[in-house]
Amino acid sequence: MRIDIITIFPAFFDALDISLLGKARQTGLIDLQVHDLRDHTHDRHRTVDDTPYGGGAGMVMKPEPWGDALDAVLPQATDAAAGPAVDGPLVIFPSPAGVRFDQAMARELAAEEHLVFGCGRYEGIDQRVVDHYAARTRVRLVSLGDYVLNGGEVAVMAMIEAVGRLIPGVVGNPESLVEESHENGLLEYPSYTKPASWRDLEVPPVLLSGNHGAIAAWRHDQQLERTRRVRPDLLPEANAENTHSTRG
Ligand SMILES: CN1CCN(Cc2ccc(Cn3ccc4ccc(-c5n[nH]c(N)c5C#N)cc43)cc2)CC1
Questions:
Q1: Among the atoms of ligand 1, which is closest to the Cα of residue 149?
Q2: Which of 14, 193, 226, 227 has the most crowded CB, counting CB atoms within 10 A?
Q3: How confident is the model at residue 240 (pLDDT cuts 50, 70, 90)?
Q4: Where does this protein hold S-adenosyl-L-methionine (predicted)?
Q5: Residue 231, burial from CB neighbour count under 10 angstroms (0-12, 13-18, 19+)
Q6: Does domain 2-165 correspond to CATH entry 3.40.1280.10?
Q7: 3-state DSSP call for residue 60?
């Protein structure tokens, strides 16, 4: 997979040089490039923002640097008349107004060949940037969650980590991807390791029994109990209820 990130804070992504994603880059599993938006400015102050038309607080990111930066990482700009290319890169702009990112979207993105992330700052990016590229390629606004961040970098880091670990070969033991939270729609079960007794707290005896059937049943019960308590909205019956009510 190829990943391009455009940002005014390239150093923010130095963390992608270490750990599993750093190894995936070294082995060529992921070709990840970080681009400084200011390298696509043409004034001596390397200006990327300006005041909003119509007034209002804060600054908006100018379209010209974004156009030059995105043109540099996207294939030869297709003609808008041809409509958005369906087989080209997927361009993702993190935004509080975006579709909520979740594990299902992470799985979708992990199947893509080329992702381009545009990290906005200030009060956001001039809307014409989104409109221009949405006419030429696939563009998505994606939100990390219902809270306001100062820019897109934290969201992009989270998305790249969630997507990267689903790419075959990135995580040593693919088995560990199967039983984690949200992979089967439920929260994960609690985990334990040695010692069997710690500060008078014991490991649940079933986990020491060697009875794999009983262990699997206990773990599924723990997933259901934890999901009911913490995230009842994830339970199948909650979704079934929603489905019924939308049918009216
Ligand atoms: C006219 N006004 C009306 C109010 N808005 C509100 C507003 C919009 C952006 C920002 C800061 N910011 C800039 C780029 C950028 C990208 C992602 C996110 C982001 N926040 N939360 C998520 N889950 C995010 C993600 N993913 C935030 C970003 C601050 C305040 C501004 C314009």
A1: 20
A2: 227
A3: confident
A4: 120, 144-149
A5: middle
A6: yes
A7: strand
Per-residue pLDDT band for 117 (boundaries 50, 70, 90) equals very high
Confidence (pTM): 0.91
pLDDT in the model for residue 140: 98
The ipTM assigned to this model is 0.97
Cβ 83 under 6 angstroms from ligand 1? no
For 179-234, the fitting CATH number among 3.50.50.60, 1.10.1270.20, 3.30.1330.30, 2.140.10.10 is 1.10.1270.20
121 lines ligand 1 (CB under 6 A): yes
- Rounded to whole angstroms, the Cα distance separating 96 from 127 reads 14
Cα 145 to averaged position of ligand 1 atoms, centre (Å): 11
Check pocket membership of 118 for ligand 1, CB cut-off 6 A.
no
What residue's CA is closest to ligand 1, atom 30? 123
Which H or E element spans position 247?
A: helix 236-247
pLDDT by residue (tens digit) across 37-75? Answer: 999 999 999 999 999 999 999 999 999 999 999 999 999
Question: Is the minimum distance from the CB of 95 to ligand 1 under 6 angstroms?
Answer: yes
Q: Where are the domains of the chain?
A: 2-165, 179-234
